[in-house]
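Look over what follows to help learners.
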Amino acid sequence: MTTAPEDAYTADPFVPDHGGLSALRKAAVGCRGCPLHQNATQTVFGAGSEHARVMLVGEQPGDQEDRQGKPFVGPAGKLLDRALEDAGINPADAYVTNAVKHFKFTQAEPRKRRIHKAPSLREMTACGPWLAAELAVVKPELIVVLGATAGKALLGSSFRVTQVRGTVLEEEIHGRPERLVPTVHPSAVLRADDREAAYRGLVADLEVAARALS
């Protein structure tokens, strides 16, 4: 199968123009908008209520998410759920998704551990129509941006999470005025030298999101 040239990557032809989340999720299974589908186990679409008040957007599925087909089911997802509860947001009331819907990884050899690799700006742009469709259906009151890659996907390549974390931004995203609270990705907390301090920082940012929703 020939792959489209990089500047032609886009999920657009695969995104249905009507139907709710179930129609989107079903269609996303067959997405061939960029080459990431070739090595991933499956598409990992967003999860949660169509009426969620808050949407959390991460970078891409990890190893566990790729195997299970659901977002935020690995260690970072468990940490995120705990942080949301500590900040006063019920995880069950949130819609969780990723800027990129397929797991991008490197693997030294078969059966070795698959190492997460950051998606390129082109791959994020290609996957943008799925995120736009999710936003159009869910219409969240607030978007929590988890980490730099998600921030670049939503707000452009100049986004720096360290400069704006824990603040409420108002921007037009995919043609809709949105309120956003950026913070670090929970996986960054797991990698931090001082994990406890990093966790407290994540919770503090999510408390800003909780206040913005109240």
